[in-house]
Cystathionine gamma-synthase (Algoriphagus halophilus), 366 residues
Amino acid sequence: MRFETIAIHGGNFVSDSEKPVIQPITLSTTFIHQENSMIYSRANNPNRASLEKLLASLERGEDAAAFSSGNAAGIAVFQALKPGSHIIAPDDMYHGLKKGILTLFDGVLEASFVDMTDLEKVQEAFQENTKLVWVETPSNPLLKISDLEAISKLAKSKGAILACDNTFATPVFQNPLLLGADLVMHSSTKYFGGHSDILGGALVTKEKNEFWDKIKNVQTTGGAVPSPMDCYYLCRSIKTLPYRMKGHAEHAMVLANYLSQHPNIEKVYYPGLKNHPGHDIAARQMTGFGGILSFQVKGDATTADMLISKLKYYTNATSLGGVESLIERRAASEGPDTKTPQNLIRLSVGLEHLDDLLEDLDEALK
Ligand SMILES: *Cc1c(COP(=O)(O)O)cnc(C)c1O
């Protein structure tokens, strides 16, 4: 099956004798004992099984594990490591997961945060106990691009697992497992859900192995699993993912070009722009540049806040990946120890009419 077909048919498994076209939501927490049946919903559930099958197919992996949030998925990978292990992670990384490494695994795991766009720095960061290389590409919020093939070669030569946070690209635009990664992580809260109304996360593995068994144990014994309702709604949302992503990326490219030519804008970060330092790698490893862009206004935090307050169609809120455009001054969300520039605005470009989005920005920038 091709991608769009998988998105529609790959997560719909009907065993009901009434033969509904769409898989019903199985709310039961427990199942009648019989051979090969599911037992208990924390361990497995028909809607979660469908979602996991769908996610594994979309990411071209062997198996997937769904979680109650993106953070729960990421943390499960760190929990599966042996105490004393060392992680190489990006300097520009989703701040919630960085916080997880620093606060929940303080004294348990070691971590080096490096510029993943600099392969020499990545190579130098390896230690004898390095077990995991964590990549996020494009990264949040600076849209840095990491070379997945090159980093996977480095990780392999050192016997480390390579995991990639693929939330921004989605499998529509990037399949890290085909570029050498061992694991893919998603916040399904973002594009998979696509309507800012589901919290969820997922991991997909290239192959079932000992490390994957540990992760599955964190999922089912740790118990940070999504509800059958959430799994149902995710399968429903993913049916339109390929078409939504095309729209998001098309709009983002136009807005990025518009902003880069505007006299009141200092800098635009979007991998689709030719002057983006990661453009060539992105063009090679992605089939589209995604729907998120960041930009710095000429001025300070107050200038940026003022611009945001003038917009009509862009909602000032955190998160991303919904059909509605969201905008925020990122440093304000990341807190006092952030390295993100104070005048940097992150924009999750939605699916409103492009002319409305352009006119609104143009008006506010005057
Ligand atoms: C939102 C996000 C996460 C965390 O996901 P939650 O669903 O909020 O727990 C991780 N990585 C990236 C890139 C994100 O955007």
Remarks:
- The mean pLDDT is 97.
